[in-house]
Design brief:
It is a single chain. By secondary structure, the chain is an all-alpha fold. 31% of the residues lie in helices and 0% in strands. The N and C termini lie far apart (32 Å). 3% of the residues are buried.
C-alpha cells in the first residue's frame, strides 16, 4: 500500500478514537495511573504481530 492508501483507510471516528486513547495514556498527568493500555487496532495486526496503526494521523504528541 502507498502512504495515501494507509491514511485513507482511517475514517474520522477511528482517528478521533485513537488520538483520544493516545492522550489518555501519555503525558505527565497519567504517569502514576495503573491502567495505561492502548486500544486494539480496527485493522488487526501486522505480519510481524504488532497492532496495525499504519497511516493513522496522530494529533497527540508523545513527548512529555
Amino acid at each position: 500500500m502507498s502512504a495515501k492508501q494507509w491514511i485513507a483507510r482511517w475514517d474520522t471516528a477511528q482517528t478521533t478514537e485513537v488520538n483520544q486513547a493516545l492522550a489518555a495514556v501519555t503525558g505527565k498527568h497519567n504517569m502514576h495511573k495503573k491502567e495505561r493500555r492502548f486500544p486494539s487496532s480496527p485493522f488487526g495486526a501486522t505480519d510481524a504481530g504488532q497492532e496495525d496503526f499504519r497511516g493513522v494521523p496522530l494529533k497527540q504528541s508523545f513527548i512529555t
